[in-house]
Design goal:
alpha/beta; DNA polymerase, domain 1; 2 domains; 9-stranded mixed β-sheet; 8-stranded mixed β-sheet; 12 helices; 21 strands; 22% strand; binds zinc ion
């Protein structure tokens, strides 16, 4: 499946229930409402696939949960059949405080696979408690050399518990129930730039839906990832818990060559050293998730990255610092996003993300909180006669008074002013 720059998420195709989830698409800003919980549904299919309003919500499908571990990363993936994968575990305290309680609440008593993207403590720290307290089928990791107490503990636990360990290298592929999991990065020889550059990158596909998990990948890593999009074939991981079966319609070569994804985990907590425009263009996501801690000392996510994301037409951006744990549910066709918290406290979007009153489509206008279908039509009718010269021109439109104007100001612009 392929979203062509948001083609698959046009509000026209969004179910009626979505109205409850106020969303500001261009701003990459999503607010939930109590009425519908904090759930957003988008048709995860191309135009060829039916995604009518009558389709029930995603129920028994797969989940990808981006846990709110503060500044760090922990992603839990479950297949429709119940197989489990945990990618990273946040800082050490996140293990007992967030990750394990979450897994138990979900009824998870065993992890089929654990992946450590790289040895930094905000990724592997929380895995210590997980490895201590939960049976794990096998561990895949980048295998870079790093001397820290946390990393040594991590390796010691794997050894003590006799958990099968495997290097994650480009081309490895296994089945996790209905998911196909492919390692896209790193490849040998590893990049010299450092631990982040060689973060393990996974691409998960289920039906028409794909998810790209990126760890703390930096620009050097992104460049190699794009450069290596080739035609090499994958090798099925021998210890995979569900091997590829004969007659499978999946094409391993195509999968390893492909970086496109419905859902992108924004690399390195939204650091400006990652998420280049070229990378974004190739991944072409419909949904982006930034796993980042509130008030972190690095200033993540950096405004440059928010601007690059905002420039992606139709892309919706979710942030764990603002919305808590972000859960993606999918049946392989449709995608539903649930946020733990409504987007209260969401910052005003950067200027580049504002909706231009002179060029915005009906749908883009409707996505602005405070502008419904009627006002959107009036705005379009107004500018058909004369372009807006300033935001205050909105006052000429029936139904928009000074109060409404003030509410709209953070979200609208006139040709970027
Ligand atoms: Zn990190």
């Amino acid at each position: 499946m392929r979203y062509q720059n948001g083609k698959g998420v046009r509000p026209a195709g969004v179910r009626v229930g979505l109205i409850g989830a106020l969303l500001l698409v261009a701003a990459g800003l999503v607010l939930g409402t109590a009425r519908w919980g904090n759930t957003l549904r988008v048709p995860g299919a191309t135009a060829a696939s039916p995604s009518s309003a009558a389709t029930p919500a995603v129920r028994a499908g797969a989940t990808v949960a981006f846990l709110d571990v503060g500044e760090g990363e922990a992603v839990f993936i479950r297949s429709p059949e119940g197989q489990t994968l945990l990618v990273d575990g946040g800082e050490q305290e996140a293990g007992p405080q967030v990750v394990l309680p979450y897994l138990r609440k979900q009824g998870v008593s065993r992890l089929d696979v654990v992946v450590a993207t790289h040895p930094h403590s905000d990724h592997i720290g929380g895995l210590l408690a997980v490895l201590e307290q939960m049976p794990v089928g096998r561990v895949l990791a980048d295998g870079q050399i790093h001397t820290s107490y946390t990393y040594e503990q991590f390796l010691r636990l794997i050894e003590q518990k006799r958990i099968p360990f495997q290097l994650a290298r480009r081309g490895e592929q296994w089945r996790l129930g209905s998911w196909t999991v492919t390692v896209l990065h790193p490849s040998e020889p590893l990049l010299p730039a450092g631990l982040n550059s060689n973060s393990v990158v996974l691409r998960l596909t289920y039906g028409q839906v794909s998810v790209l998990l990126t760890g703390d990948l930096d620009d050097a890593g992104e460049e190699r990832l794009l450069a290596e999009r080739g035609t090499e074939t994958t090798k099925a991981t021998p210890s995979g818990n569900s091997r590829k079966t004969a007659g499978s319609s999946d094409s391993p070569a195509a999968e390893v060559a492909d970086v496109r994804a419905t859902v992108l985990q924004v690399p390195h907590h939204g650091s400006r050293g990652s998420t280049s425009s070229a990378f974004l263009a190739h991944v072409s996501p419909s949904i982006a998730v930034i796993q980042v801690g509130a008030d972190n000392p690095y200033g993540h996510p950096h405004s440059e990255v928010l601007h690059r994301l905002a420039a992606m037409k139709g892309l919706r951006v979710f942030r764990t610092d603002l919305q808590g744990t972000i859960t993606i549910r999918t049946d392989g066709e449709h995608v539903e996003v649930e946020t733990e918290r409504a987007g209260t406290g969401v910052q005003a979007p950067p200027a580049a993300a504002k909706v231009n009153l002179n060029t915005a489509t009906q749908a883009e206008l409707e996505a602005v909180p405070g502008i419904g279908p009627v006002l959107a039509q009036r705005i379009i009718a107004y500018r058909a006669n004369r372009p807006f010269t300033k935001v205050e021109d909105l006052l000429a439109i029936k139904g928009i008074g000074p109060k409404t104007l003030d509410k709209l100001r953070p979200y609208v612009t006139v040709d970027g002013t």
